[in-house]
């Protein structure tokens, strides 16, 4: 199992860097080309969510990403230290339902729609989002 | 790639050209442009996303915010997009039911004209 770890300050500008690193490692790990856009978007969503949460609660704390190949899977875990509220929402039906609080949780809905396998662990001490995709090579 | 924004008016329609990546870093610029356009009385917006490389939920939030603003003035905010990777995020979130999405600017203009 090979692991790459990345930590970054809670700045929106760093989210793009995190996306690019995750996509590069996913490609190297053997994730199919057709899935790389999904990896890029899902990791970006998880990092954006973490950045917004840190900026609200603990702007000085870094966000951590772990990327690993594990038994034929490419696995990404994004961890933050901001206290988490419940994040499940129903699908939107009309514009009136799209409140600001709803929109702030859109990221999780997007990740769940994109990643092959997703687990979200919210807690008062922070949230871990673990997601994975099939991969064919060792990194 | 950074975000490039431009806009011009054709008849009563304001066409917003977007190029690059719309994410948590760049989306505030698109939000500011949409707010500015509405504040200046442009209530029928067509956002051309054919040159958008990346769109995340922050960008979706900005588009929804723009739609709310123009609807408050009986206006419209519609999109031009044929890229599957961008359309996918609209489908996942159910926003294909909220936005008018067209295959070209001409198609959107034609549909907009019929509504008048």
Short characterization:
Chain A: This is Anti-sigma regulatory factor (Ser/Thr protein kinase). The complex is a heterodimer of chains A (139) and B (116). Chain A has 139 residues and is α+β, with helices and mostly antiparallel strands.
Basic shape of chain A: globular
Write the CATH homologous superfamily of chain A.
Histidine kinase-like ATPase, C-terminal domain
Q: In the residues of chain B, how many domains can be counted?
A: 1
Average pLDDT, all residues of chain B: 94
CATH fold-level topology of chain B: Transcription Regulator spoIIAA
Oligomerization status of the protein chains: heterodimer
If you compute it from the alpha carbons, what radius of gyration of chain B comes out, rounded to the nearest whole angstrom? 13 Å
The DSSP helix count of chain A reads: 4
Parts with pLDDT < 50 across at least 5 consecutive residues of chain B: none
Explain how this protein is built.
- Chain B: Belongs to the anti-sigma-factor antagonist family.
- Chain B: GO terms for molecular function: anti-sigma factor antagonist activity.
- The complex is a heterodimer of chains A (139) and B (116).
- Chain A has one domain: Heat Shock Protein 90.
- In chain A, 40% of the residues lie in helices and 27% in strands.
- Chain A contains four helices and five strands.
- A five-stranded antiparallel beta sheet of chain A has the order 1-2-3-5-4, covered by helices on one side.
- The longest helix of chain A has 25 residues.
- About 5% of the residues of chain A have low confidence.
- Helices cover 42% and strands 31% of the residues of chain B.
- Chain B has a five-stranded mixed beta sheet with strand order 1-2-3-4-5.
- The mean pLDDT of chain B is 94.
- At the A-B interface, helix 1, helix 2 and helix 4 of A face helix 2 and helix 3 of B.
